[in-house]
Design goal:
Number of strands: 17
Strand content: 25-35%
Number of helices: 14
Number of domains: 3
CATH superfamily of the largest domain: NAD(P)-binding Rossmann-like Domain
Radius of gyration: 24 Å
Distance between the termini: 61 Å
CATH topology of the largest domain: Rossmann fold
Largest sheet: 11 strands, mixed
């Protein structure tokens, strides 16, 4: 039987998961691949801390060069995360004609243009299924299953931590701070959760997804991003009353010669599929011009789900290796020689529906004053909720709108927030509802 040797750089949670999966399902994988996968070396700065899997001490090293310089190792799996030295390890492996697998979304979103180019120049494959959606095969779906489609839109719940927090706030009525602390205790959130709750992690994943869906380079900083840290219990309650749940959505929509790309808390109807994706699960709704709606759902993170995606890349690249081919499927759907920069729509020009929560004085004429300013800015009101729950001399006034332009909304709120009848800054949440 043919044997393919690979090396693993990074023996943390996901690295241990990869080793466990290969140990548990080695015989099954051999039958499906028709070859034996041999883990020849594991490199990590810490090789003494116990792992949830047992490996021979002879496999362990603190020197990644033991993998990069080994001519018998054909595939390198990078699972250390971060930018450096991960990027340097990947580029060095490629220049030594080794195929690469990574789950490193931050690095690909930031330095992917260089990495994909080098892979193409060196004639090696790069697998990164685990970088977006964990065990969900979103990357393979975009690159292969929907290759004949123009992707009209993508709506995704791409961060399990934020989804867990919003789900618990909605279902159990707890505050953001309380649920965040619970998520940290359970290991769903980091000690510094900013990458998750401020949408940074989601932006990395959307940047990668955009490059695959539209075959173009993406500048991470061009994607509008807004996190969930300002979502309050009042907004969760009003959303429920209006028939919505709040989710942190990544949205991409094809708009003629530009792509609309944005990440922000979004109200979606109860009967929408994404509305019912809860806890730490991820999901993607893709709409192709030929396929129609495609829905993918599953674990977006975790040791074994992510390891499953890594090993799927390992088997896929190994199949190419056995046939002595590479680059059969371009890394970003299109050949690197014809790829170009993506043009994103200015966020000021997006058109959607809106939810506003004003903290207004409890006196006559307030609604007419606010609605008048909205009308002057081409914003039509769809619904109004006014509750008599006075707090600090003010009552909450909630309005939803018909389709409006972001620039008009921001101009109107700037004027409204300066009124003496409005206390504090208006809360804005965007709504995705085809019925409005």
């Amino acid at each position: 039987m043919n044997e393919i040797s690979f090396g693993l750089i990074g023996f943390g949670t996901i690295g241990a998961g990869v080793v466990r999966l290969l140990q548990n399902n080695n015989e099954l994988i051999e039958k499906r691949l028709g070859a034996r996968l041999t883990l020849k070396k594991i490199a990590d700065i810490d090789i003494t801390t116990p792992r949830p899997v047992t490996v021979s001490k002879d496999l362990l090293t603190t020197d990644a060069n033991a993998i990069l310089n080994d001519p018998d190792i054909s595939i390198v799996i990078e699972l250390i995360g971060g930018y450096e030295p991960a990027k340097s390890f990947i580029l060095e492996a490629m220049r030594k004609k080794k195929h690469v697998i990574t789950a490193n979304k931050a690095m690909l979103a930031t330095y992917g243009n260089e990495i994909y180019r080098v892979a193409d120049e060196e004639g090696v494959d790069i697998g990164f299924e685990a970088s977006v959606g964990g065990t969900i095969p979103i990357i393979r779906t975009l690159k292969e299953s929907l290759v004949a489609n123009r992707i009209k839109s993508i709506y995704g719940i791409m961060n399990g931590t934020s989804n867990y927090i919003l789900s618990k706030m909605t279902d159990e009525g707890k505050s953001f701070d309380v649920v965040l602390r619970e998520a940290q205790v359970l290991g769903f959130a980091e000690a510094d959760p900013s990458f998750d709750i401020e949408g940074i992690d989601t932006a990395h994943k959307l940047a990668i997804t955009l490059s695959l869906a539209y075959g173009q380079k993406v500048k991470l900083d061009d994607i509008y991003r807004e996190g969930i840290s300002k979502i309050g219990e009042q907004d969760i309650a009003f959303a429920r009353e209006l028939g919505y749940r709040i989710k942190l959505l990544a949205i991409a929509i094809e708009r003629e010669d530009v792509i609309e790309a944005r990440i922000h808390p979004t109200m979606i109807p109860f009967d929408h599929l994404l509305s019912n994706v809860n806890e730490n699960f991820n999901a993607f709704q893709l709409i192709g011009d030929a396929s129609g709606s495609v829905f993918l759902y599953g674990q977006g993170a975790g040791m074994m789900p992510t390891a499953s995606a890594v090993v799927s890349d390992l088997v896929d690249i190994s199949r190419n290796y056995l046939k002595n081919i590479s680059g059969r499927v371009p890394a970003r759907s299109l050949r690197e020689s014809i790829i170009h920069d993506i043009k994103l729509m200015s966020f000021d020009d997006i058109v959607t529906n809106y939810y506003f929560r004003f903290s207004a004085s409890d006196r006559p004429g307030v609604l007419s004053k606010i609605s008048g300013i909205l009308g002057q800015n081409n914003i039509s009101i769809a619904a109004v909720i006014q509750k008599g729950r006075k707090q600090a001399g003010a009552v909450p006034v909630v309005m939803t709108t018909y389709k409006s332009k972001e620039k008009d909304v921001q101009n109107a709120l700037k004027e409204i927030d300066q009124l003496d009848i409005v206390h504090g800054k208006t809360i804005l949440i965007r709504i995705e509802d085809d019925r409005l």
